[in-house]
Amino acid sequence: MIYQCKNCATALRFNPQKGLLECDACGSAYQLTEYEEPDTADGKIRLELYSCTACGAKLAVNGTECSSFCSYCGQPTVIYDRVSDVKRPDCIIPFRVSKEEAVDLIRKQLSKGPFIADDIKNFEAEQVRGIYIPFQLYDVNYTDSQFWCGKIDSFDTYHMRKAKVLFHDLTLDASKQLNDDLTRHLEPYDTSKLVPFHSAYLSGFYANCFDYTAKELENEVKYRCRNLVNNKILKTLPNPEEQHLRETYPYHTILDSKYAMLPVWFMTFRHKEVPYTFVVNGQTKKVVGAVPYSKKKAYSYLGILTAILSSLAFLLLHILFSLLRIETVFDIIVREWVNWFVVLVACFIGIWEAGNMKIKKINKHINRTKESTLQHFAKNRQEE
Amino acid sequence: MLILIIKIALAIVIGYCCSYFIMAKRLYASNDYGDTSGKVQDFDCGTWELEEKNYYGPYASEDWKHDMTKAKNSL
Ligand SMILES: [Zn+2]
Ligand SMILES: [Zn+2]
Asked: How far is the CA of A208 from the centre of ligand 1 (A)?
């Protein structure tokens, strides 16, 4: 459905900052209420589907924006697929962030990073797409009684935990094309700003297709509720590593669910021929993504810092040794300082390991940004 | 002489480990955005009621089992 300017018949675009439909040609602006939506008695809307031949992504377009680059893999391999009737959403959070703002947010983040390669800082931001992602929002009543037993200092302990939770607008990504980990990082959305769906909101934007079945999503709801509850309960248990869950009686009822479209900006850029996709929450401006670090920058930083801190440590050790009157190796052995030194080294290796965990996390997130996210999914689907 | 080598070795270990940690921390702040997995897990949509009961004393295990059967039957 294309909405045309009443003045000059040019296709209109939705302006996120003003919340109006605007005409690029003559500058007119219209309220959405000035346009009637076509009859949607069958609960469907008509959209034009495009698909990417490189990664298999499918995107729906309402209006004139035509695709040349794939938002997921950054390849110029997008072709027109067909007109399709898709399930009509109940509600929508319209874009609040404009394209320029989204790119600025990412650029601001990247320009600050001391370890980011210069060519990434000056990224080419041509492939920017505003995409509405389908989400299913659930109100769930969840109860559970859990019986735990375990040990504290070799004493047997017994615990019961009862949870009664009323989840409101639990958001669940309803598009298989997206990495769930990624969409979860985009949360939270302010669902109090949901408005009834109008297809004019899609003008100038893309939409992802709802491709989960209700059954699949309901399983996911159960799983997510259980995870949230279990995590919370685990925190209340004394000595949780030594506790075992003996019996659990989970029960959930879905009270209400609605299909909503939530706004996400996608921006793909290339670094050494590899595409990276950053996403920005189109409502809250939250930026999600990780970029590779320049090894040269990181290692030179590490080298210089090591030199400085080691000299400092040497000075302190020198003072410590003279205070303790350690003059020869013999003193260390006879006065049993060896154990203390082992403990000291172990502590610092612990600090190193904490840093290492962080690095592993960064690498994981960089991979996710690289894979975001269709290539991974498309590959899985082909293997089936 | 040997004591000097020990001092240097210890100093390098300390210096390197701390530097690595600081670098990792700065790298995380510099190159990784939007990681709030902790917060997402703790998200507050909804109302929570949590009841905790810990069993003590000589009959702890019997009381616990009793409550367990009760919970099972009430389903
Ligand atoms: Zn016009
Ligand atoms: Zn693609």
From this structure: 28
* B37 residue type, one letter: S
More confident residue, B55 or A52: B55
Reading the block at residue A135, the tokens are 């989400």
- Cα A236–A238–A244 angle (5° rounding)? 90
Q: How far apart are CA A50 and CA B29, in angstroms?
A: 37
Contact (CB, 8 A) for A149 and A157? yes
Q: Which of A165, A345, A359 sits opposite B46 (nearest CB)?
A: A165
**Phi–psi pair at A259, nearest 5 degrees:** -100, 120
Is a pLDDT exceeding 90 seen at residue A159?
Answer: yes
**ω into A213 cis (within 30 of 0):** no
For chain B, give the longest Cα–Cα distance.
76
Give residues with Cβ within 8 angstroms of B26, minimum separation 6. A114, A115, A301
User: Which residues are CB-contacts of A171 (< 8 A; sequence separation ≥ 6)?
Assistant: A135, A136, A137, A187, A188, A189, A191, A262
Buried (b) or exposed (e) across A138-165, using 16+ Cβ within 10 A? bbbebbbbbbbbbeeeeeebbbbbbbeb
For residue range A255-281, list pLDDT tens digits in order: 999 999 999 998 888 888 887 888 899
- Residue among A141, A201, A214, A207 at smallest CA distance from A172: A214
Find the residue in B nearest to A105 (Cα).
Answer: B33
pLDDT of A55 strictly over 70: no
Handedness of CA A22, A24, A26, A27 (dihedral sign): positive
Mean pLDDT for A283-294 is 89
**CA gap A372, A370 in Å, rounded:** 6
The confidence score (pLDDT) of residue A384 equals: 30
Contacts with B, A 337-376, CB within 8 Å: 341, 344-345, 348-349, 351-352, 354-356, 358-359, 361-362, 365-366
- For residue A335, the SS3 value is coil
